[in-house]
Amino acid sequence: MTENFSDFYYNCDSDIVCHKMLLALTQGKDLVSAARTVMESLDGAFSVTGITGDGEFFAFKDPHGIKPLCAGHDPNSATFAFSSETVSLDMNSFERDFELEPGELVTVSQDGFKRTQVIKNPREAFCAFEYAYFARPDSRFNGKYVYEIREDFGRNLVKENPDIVKECDVIVSVPETGDDPAMGVHEESGLRWERASRRHRYVTERAFILLNMERYSTIDKKINILGSKVAGKNVIITEDSIVRGDTTKVIIEKMRKAGAKKVYVFVTFPRIIGPCFYGIDMSTYGQLVGSKHNPEEIAKIIGADGVCYQSLEGLIRATGQKEEALCLACVTGKYPTPCAQKMADAMKKRFLDGYEEKNRIYETEEAQL
Ligand code: SF4
Question: pTM score > 0.85 for this model?
């Protein structure tokens, strides 16, 4: 490897961060300056942990704090840890100390954590989809379990859709991220929650990152419906989100086959209308059923009698955050970082012009933005 690491080979986005840090550190910059170089030159979501050649343990977060990263320690030894979620601290009997601030670098020594605010960004943008889908329910953000927030999502959906609730007999959740909101729907409505949709323990692929045919067959194998629990009934299904709509469609088909009369879908995350460039495979407008269709049309496409999305206000209220502290780009089209906004605008234009996107935009020539 040369001094400038010109033969550095990029396998993934983490390699870009490593390369930038290596360059900065070998040019004599200290860790704070190296982290600043990364923060100033990259547009996107990154939570970085590492150990320097001198054995310095560190972590830092992008200036918008898009993804979670927290710090903790083992009270029985001088052992420190960083984790994307508090759950892994809990599971290793570590105490949670703090959530890293956007643009913050934390280093560890025998004396504990040293916190340095490298870049102060006026706009925090924590991923709102963490609350509905990504995070484990037993993790805590701002001291509140994700589980409790998802219950609130369910309660709110009941309050916003009283007529549908009146019509229904039973709630069925799509495991596992639909389970916690189902508890909220049950508590608020008094309807019975039947665990009538069961997930195959050993089929673990995520449907939305598979190819078409694979996706259908995986969903089909993954979810089984306890027919007698829904036969002759009007059902509310609780689901975390609708991306392509394939999973929900298969579940509704199975419910109908089992004899369900009416099927409504309560979706805890608002309608996804745009791609995400911050680490989730929702990369083109064409893939997102919500970018092309309104809730009534989506209901028809997936075979439901109605689709009720969480309102933006309901989502924000349940998280306990301020709107301006959240990234809501995939549901509002307003991206917190300039490069993402530029890519989204370019993609939207091509999408409206009828261009069929096959790859992520950053894998095409528009990546040279
Ligand atoms: S665009 Fe959506 S999924 Fe992506 S970081 Fe923002 S809120 Fe999260």
Answer: yes
